[in-house]
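To fix ideas, we quote verbatim a fold written out as tokens:
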Amino acid sequence: MKPFRVILYYCYAPIANTETYRDEHHFFCVENNLLGRVIIAPEGLNGTVSGTPEDCEAYMNYVRSDERFSHVQFKIEAHDTIAFQKLHVRVKDEIVNSDLNVDPLVRTGKHLEPSEFKALLNDPEVVLVDMRSDYEHEVGKFKGAITFDMHNLRELPDHIHEIAHLKDKKIVTYCTGGIKCEKASAYLLEKGFTDVYQLHGGIIRYGLEEGGENFDGKCYVFDNRITVDVNHINPTVISKCHICGDECDRMVNCANAECNTHVPICHKCGDEMEGACSPECKAHPGKRTYDGTGYYVSKSNHYHPMQGLKSQKRNIKKMKLAQQSPA
């Protein structure tokens, strides 16, 4: 068994005390040796963290101990190493950047469990729609799915016309972990689509529970793994090396920090191009040192996971003392 875990989750639930909860959350992660990224917003939580099985279990219990998040569904994967180099717990306006004027707590697409989703894959009346970015579906997607040439979810309104003729069809949306589809499916309903569904838990949960059948290629993830295998039944490779054109399901970030394009590049071309996606990027003075992975950690700027926590700890202690004081 691999010695570390990566857990992915989200939860739409109102959070009035975002700053205070951020401080507590950050402190818990530090005390339990967890690394990763957690976004806290007035609309809920979105996180991916990594650590030992024991530390990840403690984290899941911590999140669920708050009644606002007691129903959180975690996707748990085993990994050889901790999947992050840093810990960031941040407050933002949204838990997934969308700029879509919708509220999944009010209305969203019907949730399909992985087994239900699998049963619909061969239904000719079902239209699969990938709600991920272009570089994500370049390396992997479900057979027959409609994809958009968009770089992020904020661009969805620019592409909705591409499926406008399908408004009365059964639309099934999917993404990596499910979070984008909560808003994307809500947006489709807002725009007049009548029968909209979403894969609950996304591609990752489908792979864990149903073996990933009919997902072609690999699934792009936002940690140092870059891509993961989800199809253990009928796997295929759909992407080609950006340099030589050979089949390649290995995704990298261009070594030129100013470019940083996400592209498939095979090991041979990666070595020859020193991780760059073009001759221009290879010659660029801002090119980073290529270590064979194609994954780059941003400059640390003296980063330490305890940054800012001294003042946060004081605030947490004051808050807890106030809670313990008699009324």
Summary: The chain has three domains: 4-95, 110-217, 239-295. Residues 110-217 form a domain with the Oxidized Rhodanese; domain 1 fold (CATH 3.40.250.10). Residues 309-324 form the longest helix (16 residues).
